[in-house]
Structure to design on (260 residues):
């Protein structure tokens, strides 16, 4: 079995990579790692922030086409809560994914995730979210989150495109995130101004935003600690979830073979 787990940026993946050995893979244009569990291969790719994730997933498909595609695709990373009952470090899994526009090839702006994969996450302690909203831009204020709360429970920027492309390969898809900022919380700076041309957070641009308003330095440091804590919580969850997923799929494969 082959499982693909995606993160937007290195900081989201770093705690898991520290916890378990992942081998960097040579793949032009991709930041890709691999780990083997029994007979299963776990791949991790960094997609960048936002809509660049669709392009990275397309490149992944072209790289793996000569071998075989993935059985499961997990969109992961950090996210913002849109409901007050989601607290920092909560692990959430989506039943639905909503996009910020209607996709012509689908004729709609939503996708259902894989029910069994969602139930497995909930059984491991994840909170069930009715919907994640894949936003075009970072929501930086509690007011912006409040306006979106009628549409979804959690906001992020990659899951719809990641799972949609995974479905195009025939993979099963799920989105699992850790809450790094609450619904009632403003972000310390406008991170939309700090995203680089390669769709990653630019430290110099963040510092430039702080220079404009030095009072944001303290809140920025606190937010950084929150994000690291959420990424740590996510790494612990993914370690257990992926191991259980490998066992589950192996059991199902054995049952199918025995039934033939």
């Amino acid at each position: 079995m082959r499982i693909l787990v995606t993160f937007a940026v290195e900081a989201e993946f770093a705690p898991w990579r520290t916890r378990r050995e992942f081998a960097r893979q040579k793949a032009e244009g991709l930041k890709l790692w691999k780990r083997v569990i029994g007979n299963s291969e776990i791949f991790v790719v960094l997609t960048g922030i936002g809509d660049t994730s669709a392009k990275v997933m397309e490149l992944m498909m072209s790289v793996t086409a000569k071998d075989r595609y993935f059985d499961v695709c997990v969109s992961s990373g950090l996210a913002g809560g849109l409901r007050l009952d989601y607290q920092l470090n909560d692990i959430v899994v989506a039943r639905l994914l909503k996009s910020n526009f209607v996709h012509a090839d689908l004729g709609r702006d939503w996708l259902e995730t894989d029910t069994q994969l969602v139930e497995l996450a909930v059984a491991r302690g994840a909170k069930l979210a009715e919907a994640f909203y894949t936003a075009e831009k970072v929501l930086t204020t509690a007011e912006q989150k409040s306006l979106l709360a009628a549409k979804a429970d959690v906001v992020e920027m990659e899951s719809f495109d990641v799972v949609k492309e995974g479905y195009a390969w025939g993979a099963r898809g799920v989105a699992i995130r850790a809450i790094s900022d609450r619904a009632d919380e403003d972000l310390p700076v406008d991170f939309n101004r700090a995203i680089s041309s390669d769709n990653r957070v630019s430290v110099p641009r963040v510092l430039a935003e702080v220079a404009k308003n030095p009072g944001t330095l303290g809140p920025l440091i606190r937010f950084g600690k929150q994000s690291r804590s959420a990424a740590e919580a996510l790494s612990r969850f993914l370690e257990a979830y992926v191991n259980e997923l490998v066992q589950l799929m192996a059991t199902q494969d054995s049952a199918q073979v025995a039934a033939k």
Observations:
- The mean pLDDT is 92.
